[in-house]
Amino acid sequence: MSTLTLHYHPLSSYCQKVLIAIDILGVEVDKRLLDLGNPAEREAFLALWPTGKMPLLVDQGRPIPETSIIIEYLQRHHARREHTLIPHDQDAALNVRLWDRLFDLYVMTPMQALTADLLKPESERDARSTARAREGLMTAYAMIDRQLEGRTWVASDAFSMADCAAAPSLFYAVTYVPLSPQHPHLSAYFERLMDHPSVATTIDQARPYFRIYPGRAGLSRRFYDPASA
Ligand SMILES: N[C@@H](CCC(=O)N[C@@H](CS)C(=O)NCC(=O)O)C(=O)O
């Protein structure tokens, strides 16, 4: 049994960011599926971590929150493979942390806002803020496309923490604002991400839950077929 417990849900984009890292680093973790819709589970989770945000890593009773911190913690203390997701060189590490932040703030955040809007009753949906979120995604796509020119991965030569953040954030973002030929580098990068074995495994684990994803109408048929759901 591992000393590590991950409270998570396979459908959650931030949980997927950490699951990809866990797979790449070869860390053994006991995974505990968290249903925040269940009042008792929610209360118990809030007692563990008051923001109520998942994933949460617990190492021998010590909560380690926030995905970027979790990944860095796992790399530092529990990695069983050589691959580093945050480079040892400090300037290279700073660039990885920058792109990790950019994906969290400018792709995950508007994508989550669009999902949250779909969860509201129709009468309470807010067209102005969803339009802003879509514009935000378009701006982010253009910025990421420029960064990717001549690169395989977004922030360093090897797959890094920034790519862990990129994969799930883009996976769900494109269900709301599809990629277009205006963004050839980003489109090619998206395919590279989806082909990465740890990303593919993580998406496979989420597949049974896509039928409850509010933006499922935008999911490509290769990921979700409503007829077989
Ligand atoms: N900054 C946090 C964000 C985590 C986050 O937003 N998690 C979502 C799931 S993708 C969540 O827990 N949502 C539940 C809620 O807000 O009640 C991190 O990096 O860990």
Explain how this protein is built:
The structure is a single chain. The protein is of the alpha+beta class and 229 residues long. Helices cover 53% and strands 7% of the residues. The mean pLDDT is 97. The longest helix is centred in the middle third of the chain and has 30 residues. The protein folds into two domains: 74 residues, Glutaredoxin; 129 residues, Glutathione S-transferase Yfyf (Class Pi), Chain A, domain 2. The protein has eight helices and four strands, in the order βαβαββαααααα. α1 packs parallel to α3, α4 packs antiparallel against α5 and α5 packs across α7. α1 links the parallel β1 and β2. A four-stranded mixed beta sheet has the order 2-1-3-4.
Which CATH class of the largest domain applies here? Mainly Alpha
Overall helicity: 40-55%
- Average pLDDT value? 97
Distance between the termini: 34 Å
Number of domains: 2
Largest sheet: 4 strands, mixed
The total strand number stands at 4
Strand content: 5-15%
- Shape by Cα distribution: globular
Class inferred from helices and paired strands = alpha+beta
Low-confidence stretches: none
Question: What's the CATH topology name of the largest domain?
Answer: Glutathione S-transferase Yfyf (Class Pi), Chain A, domain 2
* CATH architecture annotation name of the largest domain: Up-down Bundle
